[in-house]
């Protein structure tokens, strides 16, 4: 679990490092806010989302550590290649490569953890793993800020075999190449746990699960998964959007340098998001111990309720420390969905399709959260306000609406989730030969 969490740290360093360097990248590659949002959102999420499903099919059938190892090596090389970009198209293709590699990690890790931990500890397990994303996000801000400050008086750096590159390009190389060593560590140290909770036929044999079976399972619980997938996707839109656009907001609204913004936001992400994701995991397990079968969904609703006001307000105050206090609150509650969304899927889904169910969620979540969320802010800034300094108002509008949608969708989803759990339990008892409860009682 520690090695997988370390891989998650590296994935978010490589994913998040782009947002801190928005101004020098825009300047050197001659980009608009909308084009930059495509690099940070659509380029990454495009194949990250769609490659997740075929990779997840492999993860439900083959060695999950091997799949993770290959993914880590691929995204690390793609991150380093981002540092060699000479234009928008080059950078776009490199970011697609980062997304393809990272698509291998979470579905495989989620599936392994469900075989390693009992259900009453899954919330904390996923919370601990998810902590890696915020350690990585914080590290990206701090490392990026340090390198930018180190090379602030240097226009170009001469590198062997590469030639002259800008300081932001050096940053990509620094954070990308060490991932190759991590890929080797995953391959050498992580063992695939025995698969537990396999769904069986009436004769006791393990069911063969094809992709059509996964979609049939989702359709059988369509109200539950519609609420889950869409609710947590809008939740992700808020979290990932703030991670992408908050540096630009503080640089433009309060005149911070990239280095100052990097150090400041690194601390915020590490403390606020890190404590939020651990608290969210603990809350899920606490609610489960108190007899709430919809504990994961319920924790998501609580987080969204706590998030909605500060996420709107932190860009609308003119005092830096007040804005930061509100940002800390917003980031704390915005971290709840990471363990909550995962725990809900793994508890409900049969073993043979857990990675695939997760991959479909990540496909939808990232298309909405990354591709749509980051681009909507840019479009409102560019097309509605026509002023880059109004990015704060764009954040309040887009993420305020997304927070309200999250509350509505997850709130209605709790009831559907309880019903789905009852139906799955009834079916499992019937297969084992235990007299099934009447449908009304199960509901």
Automatic annotation (TrEMBL):
| Membrane topology designation | Multi-pass membrane protein
Major facilitator superfamily (MFS) profile domain residues are 1-418
Q: What is its main location?
A: membrane
Its annotated compartments are:
Cell membrane
Annotated keywords: Membrane, Transmembrane, Transmembrane helix, Transport
Entry keyword annotation includes Cell membrane: no
**Annotated Gene Ontology MF terms?**
transmembrane transporter activity
Its GO CC terms? plasma membrane
A Pfam family found in this protein is MFS_1
> What residues form the membrane-spanning segments?
39-59, 66-85, 91-113, 125-148, 168-190, 229-251, 263-283, 295-313, 319-338, 359-379, 391-411
Task: Enumerate the InterPro entries for this protein.
Answer: MFS, MFS_dom, MFS_spinster-like, MFS_trans_sf
Xref: PROSITE patterns: MFS
Q: What is this protein called?
A: MFS transporter
Q: Which organism is it from?
A: Amycolatopsis rhizosphaerae
């Amino acid at each position: 679990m520690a090695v997988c969490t370390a891989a998650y740290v590296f994935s978010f360093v490589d994913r998040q490092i782009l947002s801190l360097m928005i101004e020098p990248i825009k300047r050197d590659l001659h980009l608009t806010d909308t084009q930059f949002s495509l690099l940070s959102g659509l380029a990454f999420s495009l194949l990250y989302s769609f490659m997740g499903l075929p990779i997840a099919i492999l993860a439900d059938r083959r060695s999950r550590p091997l799949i993770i190892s290959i993914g880590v090596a691929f995204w690390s090389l793609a991150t380093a290649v981002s540092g060699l970009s000479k234009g928008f198209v080059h950078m776009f293709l490199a970011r697609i490569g980062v997304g393809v590699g990272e698509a291998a990690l979470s579905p495989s890790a989620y599936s392994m953890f469900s075989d390693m931990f009992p259900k009453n500890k899954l919330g904390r397990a996923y919370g601990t793993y998810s902590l890696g994303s915020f350690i990585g996000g914080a590290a990206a801000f701090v490392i990026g800020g340090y390198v930018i400050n180190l090379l602030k008086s240097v226009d170009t750096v001469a590198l062997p075999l590469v030639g002259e590159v800008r300081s932001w390009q050096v940053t990509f190389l620094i954070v990308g190449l060490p991932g190759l060593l991590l890929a080797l560590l995953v391959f050498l140290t992580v063992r695939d746990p025995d698969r537990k909770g396999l769904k069986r036929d009436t004769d006791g044999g393990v069911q063969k699960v094809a992709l059509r079976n996964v979609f049939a399972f989702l359709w059988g619980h369509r109200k539950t998964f519609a609420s889950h997938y869409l609710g947590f996707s809008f939740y992700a839109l808020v979290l990932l959007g703030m991670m992408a656009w908050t540096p630009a907001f503080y640089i433009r609204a309060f005149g911070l340098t990239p280095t100052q913004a990097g150090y400041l936001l690194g601390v915020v992400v590490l403390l606020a998001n890190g404590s939020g994701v651990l608290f969210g995991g603990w809350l899920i397990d606490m609610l489960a111990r108190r007899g709430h079968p919809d504990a994961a969904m319920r924790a998501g609703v609580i987080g969204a309720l706590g998030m909605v006001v500060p996420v709107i307000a932190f860009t609308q105050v003119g005092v830096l420390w007040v804005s930061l206090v509100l940002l800390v609150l917003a980031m704390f509650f915005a971290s709840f969905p990471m363990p909550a969304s995962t725990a809900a899927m793994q508890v409900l889904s049969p073993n043979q399709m857990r990675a695939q169910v997760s991959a479909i969620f990540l496909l939808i979540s990232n298309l909405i959260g990354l591709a749509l969320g980051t681009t909507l802010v840019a479009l409102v800034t560019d097309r509605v306000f026509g002023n880059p300094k109004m990015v704060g108002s764009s954040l309040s509008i887009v993420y305020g609406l997304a927070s309200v949608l999250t509350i509505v969708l997850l709130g209605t989803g709790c009831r559907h989730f309880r019903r789905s759990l009852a139906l799955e339990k009834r079916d499992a008892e019937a297969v084992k030969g235990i007299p099934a409860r009447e449908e009304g009682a199960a509901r």
